[in-house]
Each structure stands twice: as C-alpha cells, then as structure tokens.
Amino acid sequence: MGTVTMSQIAPMNIHYVLYPLDYFLDKLVSLELQAVELWGGSPHVPIEDLKLPDVSSLRRGIEARGLTIACFTPETCVYPINLAAEDEALRRRSIAYALKSLDIASELGTGRMQIVAGRGYYDKPTDDAWKRSRDALELIARKAETLGIHLTMEPLLYHESNLVHNLQTAKRMMQEIGSPHLGCNVDTVPMVVAGDSLEAYFSELAGRVNHIHLCDGSPQGHVPLGSGNLPIASFLKELGEWGYQGYIGLETCGVKHYLEPDRHLEQSIGTIRKALGLQGPEGRKV
Q1: pTM given for the model
Q2: Residue 284: its pLDDT value, please?
Q3: What pLDDT does residue 280 have?
Q4: CA–CA separation, 13 vs 27, rounded Å?
C-alpha cells in the first residue's frame, strides 16, 4: 500500500511539437514538476539526425532545470518504423533506429526506454510478423542489458499493432524473450479498450510493470486528463494500492491540443492534484 506522489508524474513533450523543447521544459519547472518523459521525435529530438554532442547538450539543459528524465520514448507510431516489417530494408532501418535510440538513452542518463512490437499486415496471419518482432526485440533487449537500460514495452491499440495490443500478448512476448531488462508500460487507453485492468497487469506480470502512461479518452483519445471518461482518480488510487513507485508519463497526442499545450497540461496536472488531494504547484494539502 502507498500513495502516488507528484514526483512520479512525468509529462511528455509530444503535444508541444509546435513549440521549442525549452519552452516545454520551462513550463514543467513553472508547475514545480520533477520529471519528464522525453519523446524522441522531430523537431525536439530527431533521432536519426542527432549527434552525441547534441544529446549531451540536451541532457545538460534538462538537468540544469532540476528535471529527471523518467523515460526516453522514441517516436515509432507515425514514423516509418516497424520492427515486424515484412520489407527487410524497413525492418533493418527500424532495428538500427531502436539501437541508436538506446545509445541516446544511455547518453541522456536515463535507465528506461520505451519500445513497441510493431505490426504485420492485417490481411495475413500474424505468425511470421510475430517472429520478426520477437527476434528484433530480443536483439534490442540484449543491447539494453549491456547498457543497463530497462526497456518498457507498450501494448498499443489494435489498429496500431496486431501483435502486442493487450495484456496477454504483452505477457507472451515478454515470456518468449525472457530478458530481465524487458518490462511493460501500461497505457490506460489501450488497457481499457482491450478490456484489461491495472489489477490484471500487476497480478499477472508480477513486478514487470515498469512504466505507466496515464491517459484519458472516451475510451480512446489520449486527451488531456479530465476531458475523457476514464476514471483517472481511481487509476491513481489503484497504483498507490499496488505500491507502484515508478514514473507515470502523461501522453496527450490529439492534434487539436497542440495550439494550446499549456492549458491542456495545466488541466492534466490539476486533475492529478485534485485526485491526490493537493492544490497548487507547490502541492499543499487541501
């Protein structure tokens, strides 16, 4: 038993793509937050073009603000990246992208990086795509082990992945790979859509849940917290009851929220503080 604290909350920069990364980081400081989930995508962190001196400068800028990088999350859903791709050139590129992302995560000084399984063609059986994904993930996990980085694999919505899209497929993939450096990231939107629950994940994965994406929707959406109909306060209570001490990423990725990211981030943080019985950036008890 325990209680979630604001120090675990790590907003992601994905819905600040129309603003400089420094603008987003300064906003976190103004809200007196302590952690960030760093989304790796253009224009903030263009992985394929990034040089190590760029990463070092990025790390210094984040640490100078007193922020911790909770997780490095390379963009994999909207880019041409797919670990299970049937096209071998695309698959090789995707593996190289993931391996470079691990190098970036190591240089950033974070111990966690998100990974996803990819997808096969939806008009074919998934057996071959599953094997391609599993083999790629195993290769990436072995490098993660050498770097001391823990991967957190996120089950996606079914239209995003026909391979790992619920608790059972995540559990199967983790069992087949068998790496102690491969855990699970539970995103509350795919979780609810798939008919799963936090209780099921924590019960069946036995300590392997190593990241959370606290997201709202109806039930889909990934909208600012409080804009959908998911039970955010109940999720936070459950996480506390399970004794979860890891980071909780906030992933808002609906385009209509990009023009006013501050307002929507403030709404999400306000929703969390209210659920935790706090008020104001300083976290005073009500």
Answers
A1: 0.95
A2: 45
A3: 64
A4: 11
CA pair distance 114, 98, nearest whole angstrom: 10
pLDDT tens-digit profile of 174-231? Answer: 999 999 999 999 999 999 999 999 999 999 998 999 999 999 999 998 999 999 999 9
Contact criterion met (CB below 8 Å) for 235 and 189: no
DSSP class of 12: B
Burial label, 212 (beta-carbon count in 10 A; 0-12, 13-18, 19+): buried
- Distance from C-alpha of 155 to C-alpha of 260, rounded to nearest angstrom: 28
CB pairs under 8 A, 24+ apart, for 18-22?
18/258, 18/259, 18/261, 19/261, 21/45, 21/58, 22/61
Q: Which H or E run contains 7?
A: none
If one counts every other C-beta atom within 10 angstroms of the C-beta of residue 166, the result is 19
Strand, coil or helix: what is 77? coil
Helix, strand, coil content of the chain in percent (nearest 5): 45, 15, 40
Structure tokens at 228: 């959908």
Element containing residue 230 per DSSP (H, E): none
Separation CA 251–CA 256 (nearest Å): 14
**3-class secondary structure, 91:** helix
Report DSSP letters for 186-215, one per residue.
EEHHHHHHTT--HHHHHHHHTT-EEEEE--
Cβ-in-10-Å burial (0-12, 13-18, 19+) of 179 comes to middle
Dig out the tokens for 109 from the structure: 């000084």
- Please list, in sequence order, all residues whose beta carbon lies within 8 angstroms of the beta carbon of residue 190, skipping any fewer than 6 positions away: 154, 155, 156, 157, 165, 166
Q: How many CB atoms lie within 10 A of CB 98?
A: 24
